[in-house]
Design brief:
This protein is of the alpha/beta class. It is built from 16 helices and eleven strands. The strands form four sheets. A five-stranded parallel sheet has the order 2-5-8-1-9. It has a two-stranded antiparallel ribbon with strand order 3-4. A hairpin with an 8-residue loop joins strand 6 and strand 7. Helix 9 crosses helix 11 and helix 15 packs across helix 16. The longest helix has 21 residues. The N terminus is likely disordered.
Amino acid sequence: MSIVDLDPDRRVRLMRACEARPRDPSLTRLSSIDQGLDLLGRLPRGTCVLLRGPTGAGKSFAAELLHREWMRNAREAPLVRLNCAALPENLIESELFGYRKGIYSDAKRDTPGRFEDANGGTLFLDEVGELTPALQAKLLTALDVDSNGLRRVRRLGETRERTIDAYLVFATNRDLDDLVSKRRMREDFLARISMYAVDIEPLTRRRHAIPGSFLDAVEAVAGRFGRERIIFESPAFDLLMDFALSAESRWSLNHRDVLRSAEHMALRAWVQSERAGSAGGELKISATIVEAEIADLRNRWDEAAARSSGTWDDLEEALEPGELTQMSQLRRWEARYLLEARRATSSLARAWAWLRDRNLIDAGAVRNPSDAFRKRWRAFNWRPQLDG
């Protein structure tokens, strides 16, 4: 049976089937993210939601799901996005609030900001941890809502306030509590944006979501290829699920990799269709196409691993003389992972999280990750300059 334009009921049955398949023991329990987003989809107007998770975990995709759920009965409701890390501070303020004609030398007309653009819809602010405390203070008024769920914003250079009816979604890959302790984020600002907070776990912990992500992606790109729909042939999708749910799959580290692979397979199917002279209609993704994509992924992942820091030479230099030669192969890999984690992060807790998110070392039931990491780190004879 081919999988064609899954309706919600069929999608639920598919995902339950995926959850029931035998998995690698390293896979953790089913995440509650889907249930959490379902509950947040019923929140009242004017709500702020904070999405937390590592880069590539799918925070943008989660924001789109929330927007669609909130705007289920609304026509053409806007989803307005702004990456707070992509613009300098002096431009972010005018982008958010807009400005009056003449306030700048090149301000030729009155210009609405992103808040006004999102009126009746959703404003999604990504990388919110990059906002400066000064700009956070200016946003506080816009975060407040009145008894009707409306916000008040004012364009730069104006005194008149405008009412805005919009949901706000914030996203970050940073530890915001840590930023508060370092005085790089206002505590009152964090309190207002995190009233409803959702942790978007990396796909390492919810590989059951990978097949559904592929279905969403190929449905989204079908129109770009001028086709009505894209069909996964049954053997192709079985092959895809077996690979996605295996420990070998490194899609689980990055949601964007899943979307990119789906686009690659759709492109291959389109090329085959064009060569066969089958314009229009459906695109079929066969097992051959899936096998080709899996082969490309393995090559790319192996090349990326070869380029990464933490080579065996690096490890030998980091350890005391003779230490590496006395280790078993398993012990050497553990030491290499520990060294990579220390170089990729800035603290013991973050190093442990780096390892845990990649399933490189079993976290087990450890209550204090920093202590657990310190104990493992001390088990090796590192050179003094690394023994911190």
